[in-house]
Amino acid sequence: MNRFSMIGRRLTQAIPSIIGIIIVTFLLTRALPGDPAVYFAGPAADEQSIAEVRAALGLDKSLPEQFWLYLGDLARGDLGVSISTGRPVLEELATRLPASLELTLVALVFAIGTALPLGILAATRPNSWIDHLCRVVVTAGVSLPVFFTGLFFVYIFYYIADLAPSPLGRIDIYFIAPDHVTGFFLIDSLIAGDLETFRAALAQIILPAVSMGVFVLAPLARMTRASMLQALGSDYIRTAQASGLSRSKVLFAYAFRNALLPILTTLGMVFSFMLGANVLVEKVFAWPGIGSYAVNALIVSDFAAVQGFVLSMAILFVVINLAIDVLYTIVDPRIGMEG
């Protein structure tokens, strides 16, 4: 089975999961406390006005009727209109998703760039100070909530040391956002050749990215260390060493490549965790992503916004798992793609 057939099969297998997510999300949003019609009508509205708003939103219909109408809207690519902003949910998600993805990807780059060297060094030097440091980092990473880490960094680097800009969004108020090309401020500012805006966007994203990166650094470092220890103790490594190969070739061409599969599995899981953790980080740093948008929608029982957020997250999970499956076949072509 080639990669294209595998991709088609994985997408087909994901369809029942997405259908289940649509059904469960629809039912759970209807179980949320509060009445969106009351919020939309305003605090001074009477019962008749609230009833008219409820009818306009389609909330006066039975659940099966509401669900059928919702499916019809999904088939047309219409995720509804957010009652809290008055804008189409699809437009809101398209505007805010690049902010969340940029934050998540920068945090992931930081986590990978720190966890992999730390895990490899700890595995090659067991019981050394670097190994003990790895254990301390792993313990701290899994013990500290991501919102606490974010608040701690804000207190130290912004309030005490004054080394970081104010945690109020993607770019400082003294700068103008770059022209929209990709939606990623770092990339768009480089495309525009505006290095000052690039530095401002980079300074703004460092603290939230590190706060989130520390959250996922721990499982990556732990898995890297464990996988490398197992690989370094294998017979083929001793054979490679006995053959006179250089230490770097043995370490990276043989040990690290064979240890990469469980690391990739962990990477896929932590990326999924990050898409959930960015909700807390975005609230701490006033980051205008889809996480903070979803929290605001939950507060006012904004059904369309919540359903659109969950559906977009489900699609992202499918894409991430598909990318991990493809990476498996690149790292080790012997892996059967039928399973």
Low-pLDDT regions: none
Name the CATH class of the domain at 89-299.
Mainly Alpha
Oligomer: single chain
Report the portion of residues in β strands. Answer: under 5%
Mean pLDDT: 82
Structural class: mainly alpha
The succession of helices and strands, N to C, reads HHHHHHHHHHHHH
CATH architecture of the domain at 89-299: Orthogonal Bundle
Q: Characterize the main sheet.
A: none
The radius of gyration is 24 Å
Per DSSP E runs of 2 or more residues, the count of β-strands stands at 0
Global geometry: globular
Rounded to the nearest angstrom, the distance between the terminal CA atoms is 11 Å
What level of helicity do the residues show? over 70%
Characterization of this structure:
The longest helix is centred in the middle third of the chain and has 38 residues, at 195-232. The termini are close together. The chain is mainly α and 339 residues long. It has 13 helices and no strands. The protein has helices at residues 3-30, 36-41, 47-56, 63-75, 89-124, 129-143, 146-160, 185-191, 195-232, 235-242, 247-284, 290-299, 303-331. The model has no long low-confidence stretch (mean pLDDT 82). The protein has a domain at 89-299: MetI-like (MetI-like fold).
